[in-house]
Amino acid sequence: AAAASPRGRARDMLDVPAGPFEMGAVWDSFAYDNEYPAHTVSIPAFKIARLLVTNEEFADFVAERGYERREFWSEEGWQHRERENWTCPLYWRREGAGVWHARTMFDTGALKLDHPVSGISWHEAEAYARFRGKRLPTEAEWEKAASWDGARKRRYAWGDREPSDVLANYGARRWDTTPVGNFPAGASPYGCLDMTGNVWEWTATPFDAFPGFRPFPYPEYSEVWFDGDHRVLKGGSWATSAPVLRTSFRNFFRRHFRIAFAGLRLAEDA
Q1: CA 193, CA 94: separation in Å to the nearest integer?
Q2: pTM over 0.85
Q3: What are the pLDDT digits (tens) for 99-120?
Q4: 129 three-class SS
Q5: Whether 73 contacts 125, CB under 8 Å
């Protein structure tokens, strides 16, 4: 039988049970101040997508006039959309008979339908999730799904082994995204794929201090960005170096920022 298309597979939602896990940096190695202190977090059961949202799936949102339909957007997101005239992801262009093309690092070509969507702001990610009747995962949900095996925390989605080409797309080795789900050996404890590398993943959570936070090496490193506008991104991208791929690492950008190599994974309440 033919393999299911990415459009069908990507809707697979995996169950993550309720209960505690260790959030933040738990290992005896360097981490940034905003990853400390590690602390126990207990969250309700939820569901999270096995795969990242693909270009093909996001093209459905564009075709269904998602950028014009106010009901999918927050007030602030709609204002940005109107002011900056967003009609599709940053690197997309229509060519010829309405066929989508996308710009990559070195050229422009037909949109790769099975690759993860990227070049979208947090507002676009949120609107897309609403379009699908889902939501963005919280930072804690994402980190639990990526790292917690029920007893201990994994440094990377697959465990503590150093990254390699069979486990993830990282380190600018390919200069592009890869089709979603291409690294089964890199699966997280709950079966999610591409949680390490490929594209950064927007979460619903504002970037803020963990309880008991202490700034280092200087206050301006993290603290000035605890402003309510920045959202946490997790997981790393195809361009991210190996040490930064750890599951505790917290990237952060403003909600309207589109030039990160960022996409999304859907979540919903259990």
Answers
A1: 30
A2: yes
A3: 899 988 778 889 999 999 999 9
A4: helix
A5: no
